[in-house]
């Protein structure tokens, strides 16, 4: 058996690695597409907020014997709604509302972990367990991710228009509120799809790093939309192989691979001149 067969091909002969590859690559690709708009609009903090805010929903769903995706989706929608309410009904800046909502919900999740008798393992929630994902969880993840991906692709032109110039889009008759909620809804679905793969804490890296890396590599947005998911999917495969051979956290390895690509892109940008900003 050659080195390539032993290191790259042989691990995927196992069913658990096949399921992990499907979930890991698919969620990474969908998150990579979404990350392009999040980076462009400047919603990195919002992605962080939603990813942390799903914790209480996941804990409650686990305790009740429900699919984790159901609890995560309810909590994500609640978080998005609360952030929107704080922004629209107070004079606080959006970042303040985000900080209050996501820390409050994340703290609620930690408290529920300690009081519920059938709480899940903390490490699995925080850092994911893609290598141990079940068939049922796989289908839940694929469904949530597919809905988000279809919505993003169908609305990609108006989303891009709004992201570059929301004022002009609004003046031209675009319902910018609806566009904003499409992006927020997609964010919630992608977080739900990704949380079982990389966990609550590391989801934000999948939502931001691919888009940020692609942003450093090209000045054309349509190229970003191709490059970001490509880099994300490749990182997912590399991270899974690293996790398999070294017995480290699979979610951490995936994010580490994405961070390594960002470091390379940043270094190349520095050599060519000042990085974009």
UniProtKB/TrEMBL annotation:
Entry GO terms, CC: ATP-binding cassette (ABC) transporter complex
Main location class: membrane
Keywords per UniProt: Membrane, Transmembrane, Transmembrane helix, Transport
InterPro entries: ABC_BtuC-like, ABC_TroCD
Taxonomy, superkingdom: Bacteria
Topology term for the membrane: Multi-pass membrane protein
Record has Transmembrane as a keyword: yes
GO biological process: cellular response to iron ion; response to zinc ion; transmembrane transport
Pfam families reported for this sequence: ABC-3
Compartments where located: Cell membrane; Membrane
Keyword Transport listed: yes
Membrane-spanning segments: 21-46, 58-84, 96-116, 136-159, 171-191, 197-217, 224-244, 250-269
Family (UniProt): Belongs to the ABC-3 integral membrane protein family.
The protein's name: Metal ABC transporter permease
Organism annotation: Corynebacterium heidelbergense
């Amino acid at each position: 058996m050659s080195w390539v067969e032993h290191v790259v091909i042989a691990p995927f002969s196992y069913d658990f690695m096949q399921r992990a590859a499907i979930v890991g690559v698919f969620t990474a690709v969908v998150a990579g597409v979404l990350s392009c708009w999040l980076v462009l609009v400047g919603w990195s903090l919002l992605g962080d907020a939603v990813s942390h805010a799903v914790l209480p929903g996941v804990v409650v769903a686990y305790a009740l014997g429900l699919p984790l995706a159901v609890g995560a989706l309810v909590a994500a929608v609640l978080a998005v709604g609360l952030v929107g309410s704080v922004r629209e009904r107070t004079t606080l800046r959006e970042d303040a509302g985000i900080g209050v909502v996501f820390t409050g919900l994340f703290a609620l999740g930690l408290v529920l972990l300690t009081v519920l008798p059938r709480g899940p393992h903390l490490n699995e929630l925080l850092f994911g367990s893609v290598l141990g994902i079940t068939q049922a969880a796989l289908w839940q993840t694929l469904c949530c991710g597919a809905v988000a991906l279809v919505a993003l692709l169908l609305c990609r032109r108006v989303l891009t228009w709004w992201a570059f110039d929301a004022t002009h889009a609004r003046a031209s008759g675009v319902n910018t509120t609806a566009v904003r909620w499409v992006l927020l809804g997609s964010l919630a679905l992608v977080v739900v799809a990704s949380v079982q793969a990389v966990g609550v804490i590391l989801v934000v890296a999948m939502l931001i790093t691919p888009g940020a890396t692609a942003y450093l590599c090209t000045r054309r947005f349509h190229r970003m939309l191709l490059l970001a998911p490509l880099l994300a999917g490749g990182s997912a495969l590399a991270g899974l192989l690293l996790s398999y051979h070294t017995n480290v956290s699979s979610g951490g390895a995936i994010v580490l691979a994405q961070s390594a690509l960002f470091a390379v892109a940043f270094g190349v940008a520095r050599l060519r001149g000042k990085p974009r900003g």
